[in-house]
Amino acid sequence: MIGADGRERPMVIVRVPATSANVGVGFDCLGIALDLTATFLMTPSERLEVEGCEQRFRGEDNLVWQSYLDACARLGTQARPLHITILSPIPLSGGLGSSSACVIAGIGAAMALSSEGFDRERALELAVAMEGHPDNVAPALLGGLVSSFVDGGTTTSTRMDVAGNLRFVAVAPPYEVRTAEARRVLPTGVSRDIAVWQMGRCVAVVRALELGDAELLGAACHDRLHEPYRAKLIPDYDALREAALEAGACAYMISGSGSTMLAVADGDQTAARVADALRKARPGYWLQVLPANTLGTTVEVH
Asked: How far apart (Å, rounded) are the C-alpha atoms in residues 84 and 284?
């Protein structure tokens, strides 16, 4: 790209997949990348310019810009004004990692424009430091199904492939569930029975997703730790869950803290039936049928 001063300037292209945290029973430790990709085009400029998003997000507080500045400071590199173009199909209603995608885009630009270039492990470290948790940023960076834990300042993320037969029908109501409220409604402690319930089913859900075992997924994906409380914040939860399961979905879950929800289906035909049922239940709601994403984040410099 040629700047106004006539000099050629690099363009950084960062592509980040949507993500769904928790995956039912994996509260704050599991996340999955979905094949719905946000693209960010970033070029050094004379001043900050942001396009491709709502007017309210085009100022200095834009999350891509703020994460770029944060990453530059952590990397010890000089931040330069950017022209940022955002091409994102990820809904802003919450639950599919739209904010995490912006955070990773800023980090990707800072690293790509530095002398060291983009490094996935270092990017994960920076993203967790900014977000405070790895449940969305880890699968967004790595792709697939990711289990993460943090020990001190070190994040350990284990990536697994998701079977190709599984489809994730994402439906987003036209309202948000604020993360602070979704946290507030959770109990401060759980019984031993619930802890045992969750642990056994979390392992089974991971295995079911790897194998594409819809029957096992349907048996195991029943959360008792957060969904019973967060479902009350989503007025459409019960009606949409019932419609999805009656149409053949093997599992139904809240994506992250909501308001987006995911129905899991075995194969394209079942996924189409589930999608039709959800459209009939709530016409006009945002809806996509998605496979898992395998690539994670990609960064190119032109």
From this structure: 30
Q: What is the pLDDT of residue 6?
A: 53
HSE of 289 in the Cβ direction (CA atoms, 13 Å)? 20
Residues paired with 38 in a beta bridge: 16
Distance, in Å, from the CA atom of 108 to the CA atom of 38, rounded to the nearest integer, reads 13
The segments of the chain whose pLDDT lies below 70 read 1-8
- Report pTM: 0.93
Q: Residue 91 in contact with residue 260, Cβ under 8 Å? A: yes
**DSSP per-residue string spanning 119-167:** -HHHHHHHHHHHHS--TTHHHHHH-SEEEEEEETTEEEEEEE---TTEE
Residue range 143-174, pLDDT digits in tens: 999 999 999 888 999 999 999 999 999 999 99
Q: Do 44 and 10 meet the contact criterion of CB atoms below 8 Å apart?
A: yes
Please report where in the chains the tokens 């693209």 appear, as a residue: 39
Helices 63-75 and 120-131, packing angle to 10 deg: 120
The candidate with the shortest Cα–Cα distance to 133, out of 161, 97, 163, is: 97
What is the structure's pLDDT at 144? 98
